[in-house]
Structure formats: C-alpha cells, structure tokens
Amino acid sequence: MWADVCDKVRPYWDGTHVNMFEEVFGQLSNPFTAILVGLSIALVLQKKLKLVLLGVLIISGYALLFVDPLFLDDARWQAKREGCIGNQELWWAVLAAIALFGLFRMGRTVLRMAR
Predict the structure, then answer these.
(1) What is d(CA 85, CA 31) in angstroms, rounded to the nearest whole number?
(2) What is the pLDDT of residues 73-114, one digit of tens each?
(3) DSSP code of 88?
(4) 10: burial class by Cβ within 10 Å (0-12, 13-18, 19+)?
(5) Percent helix, strand, coil in the chain (nearest 5)?
C-alpha cells in the first residue's frame, strides 16, 4: 500500500522516515519554492514600504495557493503515516514568520511616517 501512495506523493523517496526538518529542506529543494521564498525574504528586508508589502504578498500568496493544506487528504494522510512526508507545521511556521516579520516592519514604518 505504501509504495503506491508514496510513489504518487514523493516519487524519489528512499524508504527512510522524513521528519519535519527534512520536510522543510525538501520543500526548499524545489527551485520554484526556493526562488519565491528567497525573493520574499529579500523584499521583506528592503526599506521601501511597497517592496516590503510585495514580499509579504508573495509569501502569503505562496502559502495559500501552493502549500499542502493542514488538513491532509486521504493520500497525503496515508503518506504521512508511512513516513514519506513529514509534518508540515514547521514549514508553515517558517512561512508565517517571514510574513509576520514583514508585517511588523511595515507597521513600524507606517507608525514612524505618522509622527
């Protein structure tokens, strides 16, 4: 059973159990994901308010549209039980931390401009 599920979810899985840290590195090994996360981090660290907002929008849009849902479907739930995918909670926390950091920076900038 696990071979069918894990072949669909993770085609190159080697049979070892995947923990949450390996899941984060696995997500970042996708070039599309790495480019979007790197771009959003670079934009969140900028001084211009519009660029920070763009970085927050990129990472939030990626999290909403492309990341596996917290409530897994049957195939992903079975794959998680078999160990070929890890917990998504740390990956969600990384994405949320980038977005929240950008929002805090944006809020500080707006408050500074209002003085």
Answers:
(1) 18
(2) 777 778 888 888 888 888 889 999 999 999 999 888 888 888
(3) S
(4) middle
(5) 70, 0, 30
